[in-house]
Amino acid sequence: MDMDTKEGSINKYISLEYKDTSEDVVPVYTTYGGIYYDKRDYYDAKEYFYSTFIMDGKIEFLRLVNLATPLIDWSFEFYEYTLAETTNEFYRTKVPQFLHDDPRDEQVLYMSGQYQGAASIMRFQKRDAKLRWWAQFEKLSNIRGYAQVPEDDHFYGCGDFNTNAEFTDTSMAVYTAGLFRMQNNG
C-alpha cells in the first residue's frame, strides 16, 4: 500500500491506495467508524492515527505516524474466507466498526464490530498490532455501539443478533437487539 497526501487551500487529506494504482487497478473501499487518534503514544510519545476499513473485501488495519507527510508505521490485512471454505455468506461478513482505547491500559487498542459473521472484540498491542485476545459472541451478530467507564475494568456494548444466520440467503435476516458487559481482559 502506498500513501499519497494532497493539499488543498484549506484541507489536507490522506489517500491510501494500492501501490501502482492505475485506471484499471482500483481497490473497492468500505469504511465504518474504525479510527482512533493517539495524541501521545506511551512508548515513543509520537502522535498516531489508527484506522480500519474494508478494501477489496478484506479488513485492513493500519497505523500512521502523524507527521507533516504522514507515514504508514504498520499495516495488516485480515485473512479472507472464500466460498470454497464456507458457503454461508453471514460467516464471511465483517465490519471493523470501532477502534477504541482502554482507559486503564494505554498499551492496547480494541477493534469491535463483526468478524466471521459474529459480534467480535479484538484487543491489540498498539506498538505492533499483536493480537492479545479475540472474543466472539454466540448470540450477537454485530456491535453497533460501546461505552467505557474510566477506572472500571469493564466495557459495555450493544448490537443486534440475526436469528436466521444459518441461512445462506442474506435477505432472510431477522434481527433482535442485545446488550453486554465484558471485562477488559476478555
Describe this structure in words.
This protein has 186 residues and is mostly beta strands. It has one domain (2-183). Helix content is 0%, strand content 55%. It has strands at 2-7, 12-17, 29-38, 48-55, 58-65, 71-77, 95-102, 105-115, 118-125, 131-136, 142-148, 154-162, 175-183. A hairpin with a 5-residue loop joins strand 9 (118-125) and strand 10 (131-136).
Summarize, please.
The chain has strands spanning 2-7, 12-17, 29-38, 48-55, 58-65, 71-77, 95-102, 105-115, 118-125, 131-136, 142-148, 154-162, 175-183. By secondary structure, the chain is an all-beta fold. The chain has one domain (2-183).
Gyration radius, rounded: 18 Å
Treating each run of at least 4 consecutive H or I residues as one helix, how many helices?
Answer: 0
Summarize the amount of helix as a percent range: under 10%
What would you call the shape?
flat
Order of helices and strands: EEEEEEEEEEEEE
Number of domains: 1
Give structural attributes.
flat, 186 residues, 55% strand, mainly beta
Write the layout of secondary structure elements.
Elements: E1 2-7, E2 12-17, E3 29-38, E4 48-55, E5 58-65, E6 71-77, E7 95-102, E8 105-115, E9 118-125, E10 131-136, E11 142-148, E12 154-162, E13 175-183
Antiparallel strand pairs: 1-2, 3-4, 4-5, 5-6, 7-8, 8-9, 9-10, 11-12, 12-13
